[in-house]
Amino acid sequence: MPKKIAMVSLGCAKNQVDAEQMLCLLHEAGYEITTEVEYSDVTIVNTCGFIESAKSEAIQEILELGLLKNEGKIGKILVSGCLSQRYKEQLLAELPEVDGILGCGSYGDIVSAVDDVLGGDRPYRMGDVNGDLEELGRVLTTPEYYAYLKIAEGCDNRCAFCVIPQLRGKYRSRKFEDLVEEAKLLAEGGVKELIVIAQDTSRYGVDLYGRPRLAELLHELCRIDGLHWVRVHYLYPDGIDDELIDAFATEEKLCSYLDIPIQHCNDEILKRMNRRGTKAYLDELLPKLRQRIPGLVLRTSLIAGLPGEGEEEFTELCEFLKKHRMERVGCFVFSPEEGTAAAKMEYPDREIAEKRAEIVGELQSRIMDDYNESLIGKTLEVLVEGYDRLAECQFGRTYADSPEIDGMVFFSGETRYKPGTFVNVEIQDVMDGNLIGELVEG
């Protein structure tokens, strides 16, 4: 009987794709993939180690699995991903629950690592994080109607607060034709929403082709039969040129949803953080995007409490948010990560940073409420995701809502649709950041 392998993937969607590739290799090797952790022969924890909260989550997950292991409810525990890469020595020395580790350059070694732990060994695989990318199959862990397409690995931006280049290596784009082929296979398998991801999608192609080719890639993806929405995450502002804007303005399948992580708007803080661009550039870019891309929804991520942020700089950030009224904003508290330049700089107390993050959250909540209320009376296309038995209604997402990040649309109607179906919903109300509507039949 084949040994059972379970996967727990933590962190970002890029990590999830890595997990899916490892599952595919294990499936091809004859292992049985199970979604149930209990009574698995090996449980793989694919970790994030980006910031303190992610590290804590990963360690807590390992400890909880260790309790199950002691109770005889699971077999071996194999840890992969960023936490393994970052704390390779400490993991094996301080967590006896762990039976082996793989770094970010060794995902392709997953089968031999599982073989080893089942044979009683304690594998330690740390491949080159700057090595060539392997083209691997995937076992999708998302619902069948959407999937992520990772177009590159690593990062060359070297932001002062970020440890990702140390963990994931230099920026390496996948070949254009390989991406198109994978997207076609996903569409043939029933994927209707394709979400393009990388640490910096706007840089795609520069390392391989000497120039950015994201716009060209998006045009090609939009030609694939079966795909209905193509969504793009993590566009750095300085990489958004007219060619890319034109793609979003002209391609019907491209969601008018831009995820542009700016982190802050103050020029001195951006300079300290080794971020390219200025507040003046952002002040020019954001209205330009709204003017040229109909129905545009903007998402960004911010960091409260960065080195150099005093009350004046924080007030400047709040005024920037009020001015540009981005519909989706996530604000995180600065985490001084060892090994980064920012950790050596002076920064506000955590309590102050947490308070500032709360203020941004309250400000953004009002902006989001205003946006949602502006949709009342409009009919929107919604991707059905399921049925809420408690509320006795269906729910789904609009183009303005990325999965597991943004809000939902809850709607009533006599016909119940299969998840993955696109329907029209008239928006009638808002509640707790979500939209409430009625199915438009026919």
Report on the architecture of this protein:
- This protein has 442 residues and is α/β, with parallel strands linked by helices.
- The chain has helices spanning 13-28, 52-70, 82-86, 88-94, 110-118, 164-168, 176-188, 206-209, 214-222, 242-250, 267-272, 279-292, 311-324, 350-374, and strands at residues 4-9, 32-34, 42-47, 76-81, 100-102, 124-125, 146-150, 152-153, 172-173, 193-197, 229-232, 254-259, 297-304, 328-333, 379-388, 393-397, 409-412, 422-431, 434-439.
- Strand 15 and strand 16 form a beta hairpin.
- Helix 9 runs parallel beside helix 10 (242-250) and helix 13 (311-324) packs parallel to helix 14 (350-374).
- It is globular.
